[in-house]
Amino acid sequence: MICTLLAGIFALAPPTAVHAYDTPDDGGGAVKIEWQLSADDMTVDKYEVYRSENGVDYKKVGLIGRGRNQIEDETEDGKDYYYKVAAVSDTVTAFSAPTASVASSAQWLNRRKINIIIAVLVFGGLILAFIQHARRGRKLFVRKIAGLHAIDDAVGRATEMGKPILYCPGIGYIEDIATIASLNILGEVAKKCGEYDTKLINPHFDPIVYTVAREIVKESYTDVGRPDAFDPDSVYYVTDSQFAYAAAVDGIMIRELPATNFLVGWFRAESLILAETGASTGAIQIAGTDQVSQLPFFVTACDYTLIGEELYAASAYISREPLLLGAIKGEDWGKVIIGVILVVGSLIGLFTLFPVMQFFD
Amino acid sequence: MKRYIPLLLVFVFGILGIIPFIVPHPVVQGTDEFLRNNLLKILAAFALILGLGSLLRVHYDKIRRKGQNWEYSWVLIVTFVVTSIIGLFGGVSGTGILPTRIGSFAFDIWTIYFNIEVPLGAAMFALLSFFMASAAYRAFRARSTEASLLLVSAFIVMLGVLPLGNEISPHLPSFAQWIMDVPNVAGQRGILFGVALGMLATALKIILGIERSWLGGGGE
């Protein structure tokens, strides 16, 4: 009688509806286990997860605090596993019923990224459509970008003054799109330097970017019929230490006194050090980056700043290549679509109960 | 052929770079990891040799031509050679074949790095505060409506984060925070939308061979 009473007092409801399934959208090697909390969750200390490979011998593989109802277990792909979850209080352990067998496997598509794929396809399609549009010879209007418009004047000024042009691509690596955009601009600037026979100084932070830049500058000089004017020492590697690079470029600015400084690419804290030193030498400064945190520094200390997307539009703007201009038009329409989605989404979110945010999750 | 091979390589490796973003399978992730961690490192090692070669050549030429401040080029070459020897033969923390300690004076590569490179970098970083002051002075000269707006909002934000701001008005800190959270974030997001689309367009143009400036040859 006493034993029955004690059992009743110390009884603990087990977790229910335990469900184990292959973790979706992953590279395999994981099973997710979910359950409904014990009816006595408030008195539970923890939940323990047990695993078996034959449905008989279970071993503890994980634990989690009360109030939590899911856990992920590392597994071997293709192997069947069974799970039980136990609610554990001070002295009592209450096991759930075992799950059906489950095996993990690797997936070939991450479905959580389908919305991103759709967006990329839509915007990519738009860009390609406008490129086709341009290919048919339709004229496309692109607004004036002051910073890019000033390149000719900046190179011309350097030529007249007999001073060099400094082109600093920042401290990005070759996989940074801003660095690639900067290299595209470098190609166009190098062509103008070749045409005007102006000295170009191009110090680098990353050896791979240096190697690519050297070929670009060389090709640009060849392209304008001045391969002889290319100085292999005008493009050189300095260091891959951020502030040592800043010190080196500052030194070049002070010693060589370039007429124009291009600070275009991927920058971090050294942006203001470079821009302020350049400003103190009286050079015309054209800067550009997609790093939002560095833009205020460039806007403050430079004569012209390419803000965000202008950096990517630069190559098309300078070369006036119709196909590249078509891509800019595609970007503009992409922004229109984003703007419309933002306004419509905000209105739906504000005035209805429709779960609009789930589309952007 | 000289043009087509780079374009083909860019197309293939560009697509290989996109696929792992949407395919979690280990075959694809493993290939991506190999490309990024192994192949790129090997390429970087070769590029580093070329880079160091260019650095030394530039300074050697400067010494030979007795260019402006050519004496400093000797400093670079000597420190480069000495540090390289210590690094290559002394081991990372003095465990190599070259002795890197005389009594209590250690000169292994870690010691050099932490006692020379790091403080010099920190000194350059410290200069930023002075440059910020001079840039702020230039930015805050109220010469136009935009500059005046910048000056007023910066003043409010600065006051808002100071205890003095709360003394002037208890609403000032929350107003300063509102400036940071709403107009500031809105502007930043506007730029970021443009950046994201610009990145997408640039990547697409390069992968499809429409953008060829990086080949030095302009467009199509």
Q: Care to describe what's here?
A:
Chain A has helices at 2-10, 114-135, 146-161, 177-196, 207-223, 242-256, 270-280, 295-301, 309-319, 322-351; strands spanning 16-22, 30-36, 46-52, 58-65, 70-74, 82-88, 93-95, 165-170, 200-204, 235-237, 260-266, 284-289, 304-307. Chain A is an alpha/beta fold and 361 residues long. The longest helix of chain A is centred in the last third of the chain and has 30 residues, at 322-351. Chain B is built from seven helices and two strands. Chain B folds into three domains: 1-65; 68-139, no CATH class; 141-220. Chain B has 220 residues and is mainly alpha-helical. The two termini of chain B are 15 Å apart. Chain B is extended. At the A-B interface, α2, α4, α5, β10 and α6 of A face α2, α4 and α7 of B.
What labels describe this entry?
heterodimer, A: 361 residues, alpha/beta, Immunoglobulin-like, Rossmann fold, six-stranded parallel sheet, four-stranded antiparallel sheet, 10 helices, 13 strands, B: 220 residues, mainly alpha, two-stranded antiparallel ribbon, 2% strand
Structural class of chain B: mainly alpha
Helix content of chain B: over 70%
Whole-number tally of structural domains of chain B: 3
CATH architecture label name of the largest domain in chain A:
3-Layer(aba) Sandwich
Q: Using the coordinates shown, work out and report the CATH topology of the largest domain in chain A.
A: Rossmann fold
Q: Which CATH C-level class of the largest domain in chain A is it?
A: Alpha Beta
The string of secondary-structure elements of chain B, in order, is HHHEEHHHH
Number of strands of chain B: 2
> What is the CA-based Rg of chain B, rounded?
27 Å
- Describe the main β-sheet of chain A briefly: 6 strands, parallel
